[in-house]
């Protein structure tokens, strides 16, 4: 099932939406695994995979064209009506998550958003542009991922917003929370890695 592309001018329907941003270079079953877990654990209606034009913290070298990365996300999400890949950041011309969230909240005013990310991203989250404003814009759900999970709870971002952490037992209510509000979810891990996939493809 192919869903229509998101309208860059927004819409007025109500929904609970998880936002999974990334390069998706390429998208793989691990991304689908995280998205499906988030749907269930956070009681969300949809997950939008925001395929970034170019992550400012990642090198341009080795980055596949946007069309190819978006196609891989569409393939990974194929057959699930509640998973929705989008290149809306490219159409808006936003490179930073803080800017993307500001436009999403403006143009989709009746949607309750939750930002999703792996525990590895929390470790370096303080390097993101205006990272504190992201925590203050929408609730954030951190999903355990590989060896990063334990040490990320000692990260700068985790310490900065320690008082805003919600118990994982109440994750399904996170979308209702007044930011800053975040939860760390100890989930079943998936072995897939975009880096490993790219390395296997190299001659």
Quick gist of this model?
The chain is of the alpha/beta class and 203 residues long. The chain is 34% helix and 18% strand. The protein has helices spanning 29-41, 66-77, 88-92, 97-107, 119-123, 131-137, 149-152, 156-160, 194-201; strands at residues 15-22, 46-51, 83-86, 111-118, 140-143, 165-166, 182-185.
The coarse silhouette is globular
- H/E element order: EHEHEHHEHHEHHEEH
On the 0 to 100 scale, the average pLDDT is 88
State the name of the first-level CATH class.
Alpha Beta
- The third-level CATH topology is Rossmann fold
Overview of the structural elements:
By secondary structure, this protein is α/β, with parallel strands linked by helices. The chain has a single domain (15-201), classed as HUPs (Rossmann fold, 3-Layer(aba) Sandwich), CATH 3.40.50.620. 34% of the residues lie in helices and 18% in strands. The chain is built from nine helices and seven strands; from the N terminus they run βαβαβααβααβααββα. The chain has helices at 29-41, 66-77, 88-92, 97-107, 119-123, 131-137, 149-152, 156-160, 194-201, and strands spanning 15-22, 46-51, 83-86, 111-118, 140-143, 165-166, 182-185. A seven-stranded parallel beta sheet has the order 3-2-1-4-5-7-6. Strand 2, helix 2 (66-77) and strand 3 form a beta-alpha-beta unit. Helix 4 (97-107) packs parallel to helix 6. The longest helix has 13 residues, at 29-41. The N and C termini lie far apart (34 Å). Residues 191-199 have low confidence and may be disordered.
């Amino acid at each position: 099932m192919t869903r229509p592309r998101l309208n860059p001018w927004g819409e007025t329907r109500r929904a609970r939406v998880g936002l999974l941003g990334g390069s998706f270079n390429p998208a793989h079953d691990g991304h689908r695994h995280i998205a499906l877990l988030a749907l269930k654990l956070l009681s969300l209606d949809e997950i939008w995979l925001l395929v970034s034009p170019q992550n400012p913290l990642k090198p341009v070298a080795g980055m596949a064209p946007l069309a190819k990365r978006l196609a891989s996300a569409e393939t990974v999400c194929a057959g699930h009506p509640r998973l929705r890949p989008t290149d809306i950041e490219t159409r808006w011309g936003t490179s930073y998550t803080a800017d993307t969230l500001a436009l999403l909240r403006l143009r989709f005013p009746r949607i309750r958003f939750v930002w999703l990310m792996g525990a590895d991203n929390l470790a370096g989250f303080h390097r993101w542009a205006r990272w504190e404003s992201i925590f203050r814009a929408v609730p954030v759900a951190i999903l355990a991922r590989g060896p990063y999970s334990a040490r990320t709870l000692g990260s700068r971002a985790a310490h900065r917003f320690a008082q805003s952490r919600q118990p994982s037992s109440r994750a399904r209510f996170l979308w209702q929370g007044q930011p800053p509000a975040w939860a760390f979810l100890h989930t079943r891990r998936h072995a897939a890695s975009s880096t490993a996939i790219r390395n296997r493809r190299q001659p």
